[in-house]
Amino acid sequence: MSDYAAVPDESGHIDVPGGKVWYRLNRSANSGAVPLIVLHGGPGNSHDYLLPLLELVPDRSVVLYDQLDCGRSQRVGDTRNWTLERFTDEIDAVREHLGLGQVHLFASSWGCSIAINYAARQPAGLCSLALSGPLVDAKRWMADCERLKAQLPDHLQAVMRRCEAQRDFTSPEYLEAVNAFYVRHLCRVQPWPQIVVDTMDNCATELYGYMWGPTEFFGTGTLADLDLTPKLASIEVPTLFMCGAHDEGTPESGRAFAAMVRGAEFCCIPEASHMPHIENPEPFFRHLRAFIAKATART
Predict the structure, then answer these.
(1) 3-class secondary-structure state, position 92
(2) What does the alpha-carbon distance between residue 16 and residue 38 come to, in Å, rounded to a whole number?
(3) Contact predicate 61/34, CB 8 Å
(4) Adjacent-strand bridge partners of 241
(5) Which of these, 3, 19, 115, 187, has the minimum number of CB atoms within 10 Å of its CB?
(6) What CA–CA distance (Å, rounded) separates 210 from 82?
(7) What amino acid positions are annotated as catalytic residues?
(8) Torsion angles phi and psi, residue 297, rounded to 5
């Protein structure tokens, strides 16, 4: 596995609509290969938990960046920037700054919402799309999470019902119940690796709350009515849907979404949840590498 702390070959800030985002680039010796851009989740998280994607650097260059108001990027704090369309526009700004004529795109969770919206625009030079634990339909996401919550011990379910009804999201009891859900369905590696801790510690909580809500499974923000399923049919590049067997973005939903994209593939990583690239990296990277290689052969 790659050294997660590897120094980037290039890093800095890029002008995007609304401010500046921070990026890091690790170059591959295979200079002719189409590079990979990586989109993190949240909204409001940082790229840190996706550093294992540097595993692909022997094959191709890898670009990770923090979305505006996230991680090391500029913290503008203007809610007018917190829209799906503006976050989507960031991809073109990153590509233009780095001179990336062709790219593969990998996205995780909320980053998949951005990636789907981008691919539906049918941009020139997009070679493939890999979506891990995708947020596609917010109502379906929350319905899936309700079914997963129902598998928690009864006393934790009771705490969640009571606190959510009272809009009490900060009580120790509620936070304990939330953590029990996260241990099962967000990241099953215990204790969490430092890159996951760093992501959670650096979360832009105001952005997360504004766009999504107080927890992964309780969406009350501007994305509460998000439904990108009508856009799936507009995706024309090779597409891979991925998830962990215990993912909050459930395998059932992943398969259903994959069926809406012409020729899309689906794979479920065993013994993993929402971060299969950390929880069970061997099959995750085997599937991802094979998919990108096949997509490259088509271009």
Answers:
(1) helix
(2) 16
(3) no
(4) 131, 266
(5) 3
(6) 8
(7) 109, 247, 274
(8) -65, -25
Tokens of 183: 């241990």
Q: What is the CA radius of gyration of the chain?
A: 18
- Amino acid, single-letter form, for residue 274: H
| Farthest CA pair distance, the chain | 56
Strand order in 126-132's β-sheet? 10-16, 19-26, 62-65, 36-39, 103-108, 126-132, 239-244, 265-269
Instruction: Express each pLDDT in 78-93 by its tens digit.
Output: 999 999 999 999 999 9
Q: How far is CA 85 from the centre of its chain?
A: 16
CB atoms within 10 A of CB 35: 23
State how far the Cα of 186 lies from the Cα of 216, in Å rounded to an integer. Answer: 9
pLDDT value of position 236: 97
Whether the pLDDT of residue 1 is over 70: the answer is no
Closest among 74, 82, 73, 26 to 206, alpha carbons compared: 82
For β-strands 10-16 and 19-26, DSSP reports them as antiparallel
φ and ψ at residue 100, rounded to 5 degrees:
-95, 100
Task: Place 4 in a pLDDT band, splitting at 50, 70 and 90.
Answer: low
Residue in 271, 270, 240 with CA at minimum distance from that of residue 257: 240
Other residues' Cβ atoms within 10 Å of the Cβ of residue 209: 17
The one-letter amino acid at 68: L
The proportion of the chain whose per-residue pLDDT surpasses 70, expressed as a percent, equals 98
The structure tokens listed for 243 are 């998830």
pLDDT value for 71: 97
**Chain centroid, CA 241 distance in Å:** 12
Give residue 296's pLDDT. 86
Whole-number Cα distances in Å, 52 to 6, 49, 78: 10, 7, 31
CA 201-207-213 angle, 5° bins: 90
Residues whose CB falls within 8 Å of the CB of residue 142, separated by 6 or more in sequence, listed in order: 217, 218, 219
Q: Where are the alpha helices (DSSP H) in the chain?
A: 84-98, 110-120, 138-149, 154-165, 172-185, 194-201, 205-211, 229-232, 251-258, 276-279, 281-298
